[in-house]
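Response to reviewer comment R2.3. The reviewers asked that we include at least one raw input/output pair. We reproduce the pair for HIRAN domain-containing protein here without editing.
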Amino acid sequence: MKRFQRFFGKPHRRPGEPHFPTNYDGSGCWWAEDGVLPLAAGRGFNLPVVGELQWQDTISALVGGRCEEGHNCQMPAQLVFDDTNSRDPNAIGVMIDARAVGWIPWERAAEFRAALHALNTENLPVTCKAKVVGGWDRGRKDRGLFGVKLSLSIPLKVHRDARRMNRKA
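Raw output as returned:
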């Protein structure tokens, strides 16, 4: 019976309900926002965020909680310099919907920080594509943690459509 319920049980959402949080408009135009510096996406979601273990409740709230099959939700993220980080003076925090969800891996932080200083001469908020994965709950002994991945072109560069939009303005 458990096998049957696993494959044919109730869906985690009602038909017609989106599989992404309500704070994402679904248009995919994360780079079209005024007053931000959007970074170009890489091939796939190529950069896992670190430290998200301490932000599991926050990430869960962003995607509407756990569900049986887990999440795979794309949304915009913001990169912020974490100058108060005692472990890494080059730390770059990752925020989604104004909530901290982790950091850029320390191996890349110094390189990214230098690139962001060079690209962002106007000191605009820096955005990129993010994806929240995991968070399944299939019972007492089968619960997955949430993870966050970023899609970034490496070396970092500004999204090409953002440059065009800034020229028109």
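Strands lie at 37-38, 47-48, 71-81, 92-96, 99-103, 126-134, 146-151. Confidence is low (pLDDT under 50) at residues 1-28. Further pairs are available on request from the corresponding author.
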